Amino acid sequence: MIMCATVLEVNNGNLLVRDSRTEQEVVVNTPCACRFSIDDRVRIVYNGAMTNSLPPQISSRRIFKISDRCM
């Protein structure tokens, strides 16, 4: 699955993002969190599994910084 989102927070080992489609905040577990900055737009590739926690969490397979909005 692919999620397009805006980075809200950068932490050690994860990002807090806002999903562009649902406006939901999601924690993205990733070892490359330090490569991103607040307000970056990203495309997140993940396996579709999401926890029921608040906020929900996913584990990324890959994350790409994008310059335009996802459609």
Explain what you see.
- By secondary structure, the chain is an all-beta fold.
- The protein has a single domain (2-66), classed as Nucleic acid-binding proteins (OB fold (Dihydrolipoamide Acetyltransferase, E2P), Beta Barrel), CATH 2.40.50.140.
- It has strands at 2-11, 14-19, 25-29, 41-46, 57-66.
- A five-stranded mixed β-barrel has the order 1-2-3-5-4.
- A hairpin with a 5-residue loop joins strand 2 (14-19) and strand 3 (25-29).
- The chain is globular and about 30 Å long.
- It starts with a strand and ends in a 5-residue tail after the last strand.
- The mean pLDDT is 94.
Instruction: Give the radius of gyration.
Output: 11 Å
General form: globular
| The first-level CATH class name | Mainly Beta
Low-confidence segments: none
Strand order of the largest sheet: 1-2-3-5-4
Q: What kind of sheet is the major sheet?
A: 5 strands, mixed, barrel
Order of helices and strands, N to C?
Answer: EEEEE
CATH architecture label name: Beta Barrel
User: β content, as a range?
Assistant: over 45%
Count structural domains.
1
Mean pLDDT: 94
Count of individual helical segments: 0
By CATH, the superfamily comes out as Nucleic acid-binding proteins
Oligomer description: single chain
> Tally of extended strands?
5
